[in-house]
Hints:
Elements: E1 4-9, H1 17-30, E2 34-38, H2 43-47, E3 50-53, H3 80-92, E4 95-102, H4 104-115, E5 120-124, H5 140-161, E6 164-169, H6 176-184, E7 189-191, H7 199-212, E8 218-223, H8 229-240, E9 244-248, H9 260-278, E10 284-289, E11 292-297, H10 298-303, H11 310-319
Helix pairs in contact: 1-9, 5-6, 6-11, 7-8
Bound molecules: 6-O-phosphono-beta-D-fructofuranose.
6-O-phosphono-beta-D-fructofuranose (F6P) binds at residues 12, 103, 126-128, 170-172, 224, 254.
Amino acid sequence: MAKSLAVLTSGGDAPGMNAAVRAVVRAGIYNGFKVYGVYKGYNGLLNGDVKEMDLRSVSDILSRGGTVLYTARSKKFMQEEYQLKAAEYCRSLDIEGLVVIGGDGSFRGARALSKAGIPTVALPGTIDNDIACSDYTIGFDTAMNTAVEMIDKIRDTAQSHDRCSVVEVMGRHCGDIALHTGIAVGATSIIVPEIEYDLERDVIARIYEQKDTGKKHFIIIVAEGVGGVQDISHYIQHRTGIETRATILGHVQRGGSPSLRDRLIATDMGVAAVHLLAKGIGNRVIASQNGKIVDYDITEALEMPRVFDDRLYKVAMEVSI
Ligand code: F6P
C-alpha cells in the first residue's frame, strides 16, 4: 500500500482552514503520499468518515470560509480508549502521519495520537490568536477585518445619533481581536480579559475627557471573555446620560472568504507540516515567530504562557484621547 497522510480540522472553524487543507493535500501528493481527508474532526477517525483526496478535490476552496472537511469538538476523543481506537484505524489505512488544524484543545488530541504511534503535526487554526507559541493563528486576520467592517457600520449610526456603542467581539480567553480591532476602529476604551478594568476609570472617565474636547459618539470594545455588554451599556447610559446601545458581533466573525494573510500563512504552515511528516517527525506544532515558520514539541507549546501585548494596549490608550 502507498504511504499515506491524513488531514482534519477540529474545534471552531476559522477562515483559512481550507487553504491549509489544500496545502496539505497538494504538498502531500507532491511528496509522494496518498492523502486522506478526515471529516468532522477527530470523530471522523472514530466513525471511519474519511475520503481519499486528489489534486482536484481541493480546487476552488482557497477562497472559501469555513472548512470543507467540517469540524467538531469531540468529547469522546478526550478518552484514551478512543484515542487508541483512532490510532488503530489510522494504521489500518497505512496512515503514517496526520495533520490537525485547530486550537489548543485539538493540539491535545494530536499529542495523544502521536503517543499512540501516529506522528501528528498540529497547525494553529483559530480566530482568537490564543496559541502561545505562535504570534499568529490562521483566521485571526480575516476575523478582525470582518469585525472592523461591522464596527465601522456601527460607528456610522452611533455618529448620526450622538450615541455610545458597546461592541462585543470574539475571544474566549484572549483579548487580541478586541485590542487590534479596537485600535483599528479608534475605540474610546478596549476591555480585555488580560487586563483588570474599572468601569469608572477605564470607560466613564475616558468618555467625559473626550466629551470635553468635543467628541459626541463613542465606541467601546469588549472582548467576549469579559462579556456583560448589556450591563456595561446600561451603566454608561446611567452614568453619562448618553444613549448607549450594545451589539454582540458573534459568529459573523468566524465566516467569510479568508484574507490574503490567512491564505498565505495557512499555505506556508500546511506545507511545513507535510515536510515534517515526510521525515517521520510528529508531535509538533507549526508556529509563526517573527515572520518565520518554526515548530515546537506539542507539550512545550501547550505549557508556554501566553503573553498579552501590553505595549500595543498602551499605544491604543495613548491615541484614544
Ligand atoms: O475559539 C474560537 C471561538 O470563536 C471563540 O472566540 C468563541 O468563544 C468560541 O469559538 C465559540 O464557540 P462555538 O462555536 O462553540 O460557539
